[in-house]
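Inputs:
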Amino acid sequence: MSTVILRDKKASPLELEKMSYEYGSYIKVVVDVEKGILAGGGAMHYDEEQLLLEYGCRQENLWGGGIDFTTGEVDYNSMINVRPREGNDSRDILSNDTRKKFKKIVEDLLL
Amino acid sequence: MSKIDHSISQTDLPLNLQVLNISVNLSRLSQWVYEGYTKKVQLIDKFVDQTDNYLNDLDKQDISKDFRPTLKRVKKDFNNLKRNIGSEDKLYWAERALTWANILQHRAKLA
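Outputs:
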């Protein structure tokens, strides 16, 4: 399994290499925007989400997206983001506040 | 001068737009397959064929060396997706297609 869970500490080169297994220089991530925990490198956001739920995270705080190291861009797009009951009826993270938190955690832990 | 039918080929468009169109197709296919292949067989098959043509056309053009590894990878994965389109693991199929849609959106500018 190529998924790595990160908290508090930036990913090591070895962890980045492991996370790059599925898609090369693009890493899919799921982030707990309240606890600042990131699961990354898996083939599916769904599996990363399940890992973080088992880790003790709450689903309403988990959001999916990715980071492309080739272009330096972060995206906020994932099937796990479709949560109409929470006001997010899109695969994109719609809340600007959540997007900012997501981006900051991704950049702090992976860049 | 005869017009190109963009439902078949898009080689008259700038390379970055060709890549973005492929990205959009993959995003659509992701959603439709997730909703159930049998519900939209004709539409899905049409867009799979179109995407396949678009990718093969792209491969014959003068794309940048920065983008070529991405094209090679997406073509390989798309060939696998085509073979498994009716599989029961539609979530895996949909996530995979959506991931490539996101990657291509990031990297279209490199083409």
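Remarks. The mean pLDDT of chain A is 95. The beta strands of chain A are 4-7, 26-32, 37-40, 62-68, 73-75.
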